[in-house]
Amino acid sequence: VCQLLGISKRTLQHYRDTSVLPFAQIGHKCYYKREDVERLLCLKSDKTTNTTKR
């Protein structure tokens, strides 16, 4: 998930802590729904394409 989103493990943990990316935890592993990861990817790409150049 970190590689796909281009973020660090710590950032992914922050996303979990702040409910940016929903997850399910079974034992010591965290699982993410594909739709949630894809939604975050779309949001991330929208932010980079909507920047105005000065």
Draw up the topology in text.
Layout: H1 2-5, H2 9-17, E1 24-26, E2 29-31, H3 34-49
Antiparallel strand pairs: 1-2
Protein name: Helix-turn-helix domain-containing protein
Pfam family, one: HTH_17
Domain Helix-turn-helix: 1-41
Spatially, the strands of the biggest sheet line up as: 1-2
Q: Tell me the radius of gyration.
A: 13 Å
Number of domains: 1
Q: Please trace the helix and strand order, writing H or E for each element.
A: HHEEH
Number of E strands: 2
Low-confidence stretches: none
The helix content is: 40-55%
Query: In terms of structural class, how would the helical and strand content be classed?
Result: mainly alpha
Q: Number of helix segments?
A: 3
Describe the main β-sheet briefly. Answer: 2 strands, antiparallel
- Any idea what the shape is? elongated
Average pLDDT for all residues: 91
Beta-strand portion reads 5-15%
Head-to-tail CA distance between termini: 33 Å
Descriptive notes:
The N and C termini lie far apart (33 Å). The model has no long low-confidence stretch (mean pLDDT 91). The chain has one domain. The protein has a two-stranded antiparallel ribbon. The chain is mainly alpha-helical and 54 residues long.
